[in-house]
Design brief:
Elements: H1 2-30, H2 50-60, E1 83-85, E2 92-93, H3 103-109, E3 111-113, H4 115-126
Antiparallel strand pairs: 1-2, 1-3
């Protein structure tokens, strides 16, 4: 008798849950709510073709940053990329802005810099009034 009562209670609970879900979904549809608009993701644009990208990866491999002296990390998709520094004007050229047309000339006339220094030099160029140069001691970076 208790097993039959338990089965009936379980069946009534399942009917209540399914019915509640059905009527809730029906109410949302009938409410005429506009659908949520999902903005399409902007495609990452790589201005370089595969051969140029491979040449740049090989060129930056094993180099050191001309600004900070650290080794330049290997280039991977989805990470910050190194760039070039014009030694005369101190203008940083980001990976995406390296011209593919005069690639060998550009690579020969510019120094390599790491991704962090590209960011720093770009900020320095765009916001010179917000930059404070502090010469840090390598043994005591906080001083």
């Amino acid at each position: 008798m208790t097993a039959v009562l338990f089965a009936v209670v379980l069946l009534l609970a399942a009917i209540a849950i399914v019915g509640g879900t059905f009527f809730t979904i029906r109410w949302f549809i009938a409410a005429g709510r506009p659908p949520v608009e999902v903005k399409p993701k902007r495609a990452k644009s790589n201005p370089h073709d595969a051969a140029t990208t491979a040449h740049l990866k090989q060129f930056f491999g094993g180099k050191e940053c001309a600004a900070c002296g650290r080794p330049i990390a290997p280039v991977h998709a989805g990470e910050l990329h190194p760039g070039l520094l014009n030694t005369n004007t101190h203008e940083a050229i980001a990976w995406e802005d390296i011209p593919a047309a005069d690639l060998s000339t550009t690579l020969a006339s510019h120094a390599t810099i790491c991704a962090s220094c590209v960011t720093v030099e770009t900020f320095r160029r765009e916001y010179p009034d917000r930059v404070v140069d502090r010469h840090r001691n390598v043994q005591h970076p906080s001083h």
